[in-house]
Amino acid sequence: MNAAVPNLVSDGQILAEVNGCLGLITLNRPQALNALSLAMIRDMTTLLRHWASRPEIQAVAVLGAAREGKAPAFCAGGDIRFFHQAAHAGDPALGEFFTEEYRLNHLIHHFPKPYIALMDGIVMGGGMGISQGAKLRVLSERSKLAMPETAIGLFPDVGGGYFLAQCPGHVGEWLALTGHTIAAGDAIEWGLGDVYVPAAQWADLVEALRFSPQPSAEHVVATVMERVDLAPTADPKAAAERIDRHFGEPTLAGILDSLAAAGDDWARQTRETLLTRSPLMMAVTLELVRRGRKLSLADDLRLERDLVHHAFHLRGAARSETVEGIRALAVDKDHAPRWSPAAVADVDAAEVAAFFVSPWSPAEHPLRDLS
């Protein structure tokens, strides 16, 4: 066993290798679009803590295993079927998943060595959580970034309240509420990616990181940067102006009314998307992003840990919007969630406020020690 690679527990769902000064982590669950399991989160945490302490490891890169003959996926999020089963079973592993995932997100944002996220293909939910804290976020024309949690009656977690809030104007509210997927050019323009490497260069890049000499962190970064090109982009400035006009409204009802009044195709389609989402969890999401502009990452993750506890437990599993959303999307696959309430006008402000009351005292909070 290479002393630079500790023992792992995920039965091959995380692969670790060392090339010179570079530690490489491969998410190896391609049949599930490299979605994160609790064991994968534990292995990534073990590796990063170990490599942070070892002077011979000077940089870390993380990538998703390829799918033979199919479009790539970096990481499509967390294992939502597990969430559904665990919520119904009252399994404490559900809480452990989110506590440990958010700790991993925090560790990545504060990692003391260059951490490079190779965000080729699908990067959603939990995949954003393990990439947005990277020192270098590398995209291709195949990259598809989104925080689609409102589609399952959840909110953009894994630090989404923090990193979406950093987007210019009201782009964060738009991404959080709609779950809209963006490409490399917009992601870089809006601060959710750093550099673009064309897909034609991708295999060569990964090969170089794996097998070419990597004597220093500077050399690792240079291996990426020598393949960087200008990202193809539409007109993100024009898109941002349109987003700001509607998503700067102070309330959820105001956003919907503004979209209805605009009458153009984009506004109509955006409004139709919002009308398929959980009204309650959209209200929670809007409040999270707006609070997130004033929060540190640690405070945001503590708040998200409160919110995700309530998402599953405030009403119990039988009436949880999140359990119902996962049922409709991934379990029964009828794509017909029965939201309660069904209309934005019927959302109870007191119930939204209850989400933001921590179930723990500060001394007992599972993420109390994050700073």
From TrEMBL:
- InterPro entries, from UniProt? ClpP/crotonase-like_dom_sf (IPR029045), ECH_dom (IPR045004), HIBYL-CoA-H (IPR032259)
Q: Which UniProt keywords apply?
A: Hydrolase
Q: Look up the domain of life of the source.
A: Bacteria
Residue limits of the Enoyl-CoA hydratase/isomerase domain? 23-356
Gene3D superfamilies named among the record's database cross-references: 2-enoyl-CoA Hydratase, Chain A, domain 1 (3.90.226.10)
- Say if the entry is tagged with keyword Chloroplast: no
User: What name is this protein filed under?
Assistant: Enoyl-CoA hydratase/carnithine racemase
